[in-house]
Amino acid sequence: MRRDPHRQKGLTRRAAALSGLSALGLAACQRDGARTLLSSDTHPAGYPTVEAVQEMGRLLLERTSGRLGIRVYAGGQLGAERDTLEITTFGGLDLNRVFMSPLNSIEPDTTIPSLPFLFQSKDHMRRALDGAPGRAILDRLEPHGLVGLCYYDSGERSFYNTRQPIYTPADMKGMKIRTPNSDMTVAIINATGANATPMDLGEVYQSLVQGVIDGAENNWPSYESGRHFEAAPYFSLTRHTMTPEVLLMSKARWDKLSSADRDLVMACAQESVPFMRRLWDARVDGARERLLAEGVKENEVTDREAFVKLMQPVYDQFVVTPFQKKLVADIGAMAT
Ligand code: GTR
Hints:
Bound molecules: beta-D-galactopyranuronic acid
CATH class of the largest domain: Alpha Beta
Number of domains: 2
Structural class: alpha/beta
Largest sheet: 5 strands, mixed
CATH superfamily of the largest domain: Bacterial extracellular solute-binding protein, family 7
Radius of gyration: 20 Å
Distance between the termini: 58 Å
Number of helices: 14
Strand order of the largest sheet: 2-1-3-10-4
Shape: globular
Helix content: 40-55%
CATH topology of the largest domain: D-Maltodextrin-Binding Protein, domain 2
Order of helices and strands: HHEHEHEHHEEEHEHEHEEHHEHHH
CATH architecture of the largest domain: 3-Layer(aba) Sandwich
């Protein structure tokens, strides 16, 4: 029988993640007494998403007089986002802070906030996600075993690469650009004329150094914390997406909470959002300043409209159902 190497790799990774979780078995037993909810994050300690979930835990502890808290396993200790998501759906993890893209293969409607050039500004993005469209998208996750608690910012994503500044789509032609594992992000990159290479975030640095890929796309804080700038110093401000982060709870754990505790968990998650945004805004500015001082070469693209025009096939491919069309229209109407 022929072996599928990708499947093999996926299974190995999942097995590693699961054994990591069983190594936490003791903690898991104790947590049932102490009611500590376990949460995963791919980012290291100190990153705004990690701090935000810790803040939520602090609020929970305070409001339950120590009965309910959160422990965040940061730095991808429990595995890559798509693997920890799978574990969360069947209740092996209580909470998970992930990027929206790995959810796309679980629920197609989660692609909508990743549409290129959808949000006109940071305020527009926040208004839409805090409002009815954002809630409607999170509600789509429940049948998949996930409860969407809140969105966190992930800012504007732009392309960076090892070779040259990108001014127009022609500058990207044929470049191998890493994307998160999502059909939508693959389509966005291929639409520019580059070749999308899906991989987990943790593999990007090495792949840039070894020349397996020519570039990637992300926000300033991830570009800095993953040290991608060392290998790919050209940061070109396409600002093509503002895909958010999302904090999820396993529905299995959610269903075990009393209705008062559910309200409390939801309220503390919501309160961690402005806390995260304050940290985030400062982190974006700080990362950019530090990296420019390190020699990163930032440039504005000269033909943003050309990038926008190339994205029409992405809309045609991913905005198909009446629900998806309504979401896009409703988000568009919230622009001013
Ligand atoms: C980051 C995001 C991560 C991760 C990453 C990626 O901005 O915070 O959760 O998904 O992007 O590109 O994979």
